[in-house]
Design goal:
Length: 171
Amino acid sequence: MADHTQAQHAPPAATDGPSRAAAPGPWRLALTATMHCLTGCTIGELAGMMIGMALALSNGVTIALATVLAFLFGYAFTLRPLIRTLPFRAALGVALASDTFSIAVMELVDNGVMLLIPGAMHATLGQPLFWWSMAASLLLGGLAAWPLNRWLIGRGLGHTRAHAAHAGHHH
């Protein structure tokens, strides 16, 4: 029984390394940043698509509205904690620097997928086609932005700036 207990408490494999336990790795930080942006994008996208469909706007106008709202909500989610510790202009600068590329990639992929799925842009809110198309397009947008966020974090950009600004002014 002692051998079994020792095996369960064996040190981590060499590939895990001691730093893995101390702090999340860059891929995990990138996933957190991506999920953060994706939350704002999802709210904006859904609101824009719902408004566009409810008002029978053209596909182009609906996508433009959804994109603008996705950026606004995406930035708002980053701004919220920053405005507690930074002046608004500084917080806005950090939000723009940390989220712009991520949101842009999400929006490009998300809206492209919605346009490629037959009937998705003409589906009504009561049809399953609308909802599964939105879910698939947002998932694919998030998956496309995740490696971008990892790349940005590896270079001290993207959400690294937001986290540094928030942590650096936290008392």
